[in-house]
TrEMBL record:
It comes from Acipenser oxyrinchus oxyrinchus. SMART domains: DEXDc, HELICc. Its EC number is 3.6.4.13. Residues 335-495 form the Helicase C-terminal domain. It is an enzyme of class 3 (hydrolase). This is ATP-dependent RNA helicase.
Length: 507
C-alpha cells in the first residue's frame, strides 16, 4: 500500500530538488543594446553616407585621409548629433537627451566617434564658453585626444585647452579664463583634462568655467567607475548645477538639476548635461553603472550577440592573434631576445608588472646589445616619457619595455606585436595591453609568457572574457641555446649596474 503523502514538512527532511538557476534580469538598455560590428574592414561606411555631418567637417575628414567611418563611428555620430538637433538647448516640450555608453574594442576609433559630433554641435554658434569637458585617466591620453580635437577644430574658431594638473594653478587658470572688468571670460570651448587636473581647477575657478557645460565625455570610463569612491563625477555634476543657480535667475535659460519631468519643469528651455562614456572594457554590471547617474542611457556595444547577454565578456579586436608561450623564470629573457633577434619582431611593446621589473629587463636587454630598447614607466619624467613615445612612434626604438602606463588608450601606429613578459592579473589589463596592436582593422600579434603555475588561471580568465581563442606557441630550447653565452655576460653586467645604482641611491 502506498502511504498518503504528508503535507507537513519534516524538519531536516528536505527533498532533493535541482535548484533552478536564477537568470539575471537586466534593464532593457543593457539587455537590448545597439550592436556595433567588430569587423572594421567589412563594415566601413563612406563618410558621406552618415547623415548630419556638415560640409566643413567632411572636408576636414577627407583632408586627414579619412574616406570611411568605422562601425562605432557610423553608429555613434548620428546618435549624438540627433540629441543636438534643437541646438544645444532643449526647448519646451523637448526631451532631455539620453546619456550614451559605448563598449567597443581597442583601436576601433572611439575617439573620432565623439570628436566629430561634439565639434559639430559647438559650431553653431561659436560662443567661447566651456561646453565640452573630456576627461581621461593620464596626461599622455589627454594629449592624444587633445591633438584630435585640435585637428578638427582648426580654423573653426573653437578653442581647445588641456588641463593636466601639472602646471601651477595660476598658469592653468590663465589658459582657461581671462579676468576682465566686471568678471571674467572663458578662453576655451573644449577642455581636455585629466581627472586630477579638472578637479583642482574646478574647485578654484569661477562658476563661468562650468555653467555652459553641455557634454561630459569620459574616456576609459571603467577606470572612472573604479574610482567612484572618490565621488569625482558627482562632484563635477553638482558644480555644474551649482553654477547655474546664481546665473540662471538673471537669464532666460535655466538649468535645474534633473528631476521628474513635470509641466512646470518643461515650460522653460533647458540646458542639459549629456554624459558620453567610452571604454573597451566597460562593465555591464547594472549596479556599477548605476553609480554614474546616467539619464535613460543607451548602450552601443560590440560585446554582445543577439543570442547571449554576458556581464563578463569584453569585445576583442577581430584581427588580433593571441598566443601564450610556456616558459620558466630562467628562459623568459631568452624568449624575449629570441623574438627580437631571431624572429625579427619589430616594433615590440613589452609589458611587465612593475617599474622595477621594466627597469631591470631594460638594463638586461641593453647589456645584451643588438636591440634598440627603451623603458617607459613612472621612473621617467613627463618630458622623457613624451620623447620616448615619439621615438617609438618614429621607429627609432625597436623594443619598448613598459609598465601599464602605456596599456590604456595610447595609439602608436604600427605596433605589430605586444608581449606580456609578465602575465597580467586582470582581464581588463590584458584587453588594454594587447589592444595596443591590431588597431584600426590592421593585423596584430599578442604573446603572453606564462609560467607553469599561471597557465590554468590565465586560460580560464580569457575563456570567461570571451576571447576568440589563444593558441599555444612552444619555443624549443635549441632555438634559445645560441643566445646563452652572451646572455650570461649580460646577466653579470646587469648585476654590477644594479649594485652601482643601489650604491648611488643610498649615498
Ligand atoms: N575612420 C577612420 N579611418 C581611418 N583611421 C581611423 C578612423 N578612425 C580612427 N582611425 C585611426 O584608428 C586608430 C585607433 O583609433 P582610436 O585611438 O580612436 O581607438 P580607440 O577605440 O579609442 O582605442 P582604445 O580603446 O585603445 O583607446 C587611430 O590611429 C585613428 O587615427
Amino acid at each position: 500500500m502506498v502511504p498518503p503523502q504528508s503535507t507537513l514538512t519534516i524538519l531536516g527532511g528536505f527533498e532533493k530538488k535541482a535548484v533552478q538557476k536564477v537568470q539575471r534580469v537586466l534593464p532593457q538598455w543593457l539587455a537590448q543594446p545597439n550592436l556595433v560590428q567588430r569587423d572594421i574592414k567589412k563594415n566601413l561606411i563612406p563618410i558621406g553616407d552618415v547623415p548630419g555631418i556638415c560640409p566643413k567637417l567632411l572636408t576636414k575628414l577627407q583632408s586627414n585621409g579619412i574616406q570611411h567611418f568605422f562601425p562605432v563611428q557610423a553608429e555613434l555620430i548620428p546618435a549624438v548629433l540627433e540629441s543636438a538637433l534643437l541646438g544645444l538647448l532643449i526647448g519646451r516640450g523637448g526631451y532631455r537627451p539620453r546619456d550614451i555608453c559605448v563598449s567597443a574594442p581597442t583601436g576601433s576609433g572611439k575617439t573620432l566617434a565623439f570628436v566629430i559630433p561634439v565639434v559639430q554641435a559647438l559650431l553653431e554658434p561659436v560662443i567661447c564658453e566651456v561646453r565640452v569637458l573630456a576627461v581621461l585617466p593620464t596626461k599622455e591620453l589627454a594629449q592624444q585626444v587633445c591633438k584630435v580635437f585640435h585637428t578638427y577644430t582648426d580654423g573653426t574658431g573653437l578653442k581647445v585647452v588641456m588641463v593636466a594638473g601639472q602646471k601651477s594653478f595660476a598658469v592653468e587658470q590663465a589658459s582657461l579664463v581671462q579676468n576682465i572688468t566686471g568678471g571674467c571670460r572663458s578662453l576655451a570651448d573644449i577642455v581636455v583634462a585629466t581627472r586630477a587636473g579638472w578637479s583642482i581647477t574646478l574647485i578654484k575657478l569661477p562658476d563661468s568655467a562650468s555653467r555652459q557645460l553641455r557634454y561630459l565625455i569620459i574616456d576609459e570610463a571603467d577606470r572612472m567607475i573604479d574610482s567612484m569612491h572618490q565621488d569625482w563625477l558627482n562632484y563635477v555634476v553638482k558644480e555644474v548645477y551649482r553654477a547655474q543657480e546664481a546665473w540662471s535667475t538673471a537669464r532666460f535659460f535655466r538649468r535645474a538639476e534633473p528631476g521628474p519631468v513635470t509641466a512646470a519643469s518643461l515650460w522653460q528651455p533647458q540646458m542639459p548635461l549629456q554624459k558620453l562614456m567610452f571604454s573597451a572594457t566597460l562593465t555591464q554590471n547594472p549596479e556599477k553603472l548605476q553609480q554614474l547617474g546616467l539619464h535613460q542611457p543607451r548602450l552601443f556595444t560590440s560585446a554582445h550577440s543577439r543570442s547571449s547577454v554576458s556581464l563578463t565578456q569584453h569585445p576583442f579586436p577581430l584581427v588580433l592573434q593571441e598566443y601564450y608561450v610556456p616558459c620558466n623564470l630562467n628562459n623568459k629573457p631568452l624568449i624575449l631576445l629570441h623574438f627580437l633577434l631571431r624572429l625579427k619582431f619589430n616594433p615590440v611593446l613589452c609589458f611587465t608588472n612593475s617599474r622595477e621589473a621594466s627597469h631591470r629587463l631594460y638594463l638586461l636587454v641593453r647589456s645584451y646589445g643588438g636591440v634598440a630598447a627603451a623603458e617607459f614607466s613612472s621612473r621617467l619624467s613627463p618630458n622623457e616619457r613624451k620623447k620616448t613615445l615619439k621615438e617609438f612612434e618614429q621607429g627609432k626604438i625597436q623594443l619598448l619595455i613598459s609598465t601599464d602606463a602605456t596599456a590604456r588608450g595610447i595609439d602608436v601606429d604600427g605596433v605589430k606585436c605586444v608581449i606580456n613578459y609578465d602575465a597580467p592579473q586582470f582581464i581588463r589589463t590584458y584587453v588594454h595591453r594587447v589592444g595596443r596592436t591590431a588597431r584600426a582593422g590592421k593585423a596584430g600579434l599578442a604573446f603572453t609568457l606564462l609560467l607553469g603555475v599561471q597557465e590554468r588561471n590565465f586560460l580560464q580568465m580569457l575563456r570567461d572574457a570571451g576571447s576568440p581563442g589563444v593558441q599555444k606557441q612552444l619555443i624549443r630550447h635549441e632555438n634559445l641555446k645560441p643566445l646563452i653565452p652572451q646572455y650570461e655576460n649580460a646577466l653579470e653586467e646587469l648585476h654590477s649596474i644594479i649594485k652601482e645604482e643601489r650604491a648611488t641611491k643610498y649615498t
